Amino acid sequence: MPEEKNNPQNQPAEMSRRRFFVRMGVGSIAVATLGSGVFGYQFMSPNVLFEPSLIVNAGKPEEYEVNSVTFDPKNSIYVMRDAAGFYAVSAVCTHLGCVTAWKPELDMIACPCHGSKFHKDGTKIEGPAPKPLPWLRMWISEEGNLMVDRGTTVQARQFVRV
Ligand code: FES
């Protein structure tokens, strides 16, 4: 069928097919370039895990009543105020890391996971927890706020007096 190939009537169909393949090729290259650009951007972007600060602003001392236990679930800490002053205790159980709960009716802190119990000063009453709940560094900021450093433990009975 050589006559058909040289037939000028076939020329527009031939061009159309050629144009189709050129467009397919250009489209494929564009998609590949876009895809590699997206993956390249993700590869070059730092994989940073943003964690909340270990320093907690617990507010003004006058917000706490004497002999109060205030649980901060967001930061897993207790802010205590008794006659001796303020202190902060970690709410994370020293057994396997569950977050404990203050039980005012029992006047104790209890762990829901395996039953460890603690006095409000963090000392252990019973259960599998190997250590007391640690006291956390606490201080008064220049603005007069109670500040707690969740990352720094201190010896027990280091009260903050206002
Ligand atoms: S995690 Fe608290 S008792 Fe096990």
Summarize the topology.
Elements: H1 2-6, H2 11-44, E1 55-59, E2 68-72, E3 77-82, E4 85-90, E5 101-103, E6 108-110, E7 117-118, E8 124-126, E9 135-140, E10 146-154
Antiparallel strand pairs: 1-10, 2-3, 3-4, 4-9, 5-6, 6-7, 7-8, 9-10
The structure holds FE2/S2 (inorganic) cluster.
FE2/S2 (inorganic) cluster (FES) binds at residues 93, 95-96, 98, 111, 113-116, 127-129.
Brief synopsis:
With 162 residues, the chain is an alpha+beta fold. 24% of the residues lie in helices and 30% in strands.
Question: How would you portray this structure in words?
Answer:
With about 160 residues, the chain is α+β, with helices and mostly antiparallel strands. The protein has helices spanning about 1-5, 10-45; strands spanning about 55-60, 70, 75-80, 85-90, 100-105, 110, 115-120, 125, 135-140, 145-155. It is about 25% helix and about 30% strand. A 6-stranded antiparallel β-sheet has the order 1-10-9-4-3-2, with no helix packed on it. A 4-stranded antiparallel β-sheet has the order 5-6-7-8, with no helix packed on it. Strand 9 and strand 10 form a beta hairpin. The protein is elongated. The termini are far apart. The mean pLDDT is about 90. It binds FE2/S2 (inorganic) cluster. FE2/S2 (inorganic) cluster binds near residues 95, 96, 98 and 116. FE2/S2 (inorganic) cluster (FES) binds near residues 93, 95, 115 and 129.
